[in-house]
Amino acid sequence: MVNSKKTKKEIITRAEKIAAAHEKKFKGCGQCTFMAIIDALRWGGIELISKETEEKLFPGISMLTAGVCMSGEGTCGAVASSAMALGLALGPPIDSIDMSAARRTAAAIRGSLMAKYDNEIWLHPVQRRPA
Asked: Total structural domains in the chain?
């Protein structure tokens, strides 16, 4: 990762630990995942958004939980909020006209994020959390 004080693996491991702690406190997959990624990157030396902005986004991101507004329909909140956090880190700036770069970034995020979701959460939902 560019400008990171920690390795990619260290940041991912930290995000997993933070997400587990957040899930006990906040319960929702959307906000727990988003905050874990943002906080782990911040710990690793990459400040995507301020703590103040994170707190302002929390209510909206909470509505991504359980397939949008806890409906059980739509995209998993953890997937949607992960894509948002990773988009903040890797997506094109607002003044970018290079849509091919945006598509490449989206493909990279989609490929890694969805592979992990498909293999670890969707295919093995019972195993994802210890009893």
From this structure: 1
Handedness of CA 71, 108, 111, 11 (dihedral sign): negative
Instruction: Note whether residue 1 is domain-resident.
Output: no
Tens of pLDDT, residues 81-103: 888 888 888 777 778 777 887 78
Residue range(s) defining the domain that contains residue 119 = 8-128
CA 105 to chain centre: 15
Q: Which residue from 124, 29, 123, 9 is spatially nearest to 85, judged by alpha carbons?
A: 29
CA 79, CA 74: separation in Å to the nearest integer?
A: 11
Residue 78's alpha-carbon distances to 67, 74, 75, 121, in angstroms, are 9, 12, 8, 10
- Angle (deg, nearest 10), helices 51-62 and 29-43: 160
* Four-residue CA torsion sign, 12, 19, 35, 115: positive
3 in a domain, yes or no? no
Classify residue 56: in a domain, yes or no: yes
| Residue 45 within any structural domain of the chain | yes
What's the CA gap between 59 and 77, in Å, rounded? 13
Q: What is the pLDDT of residue 119?
A: 67
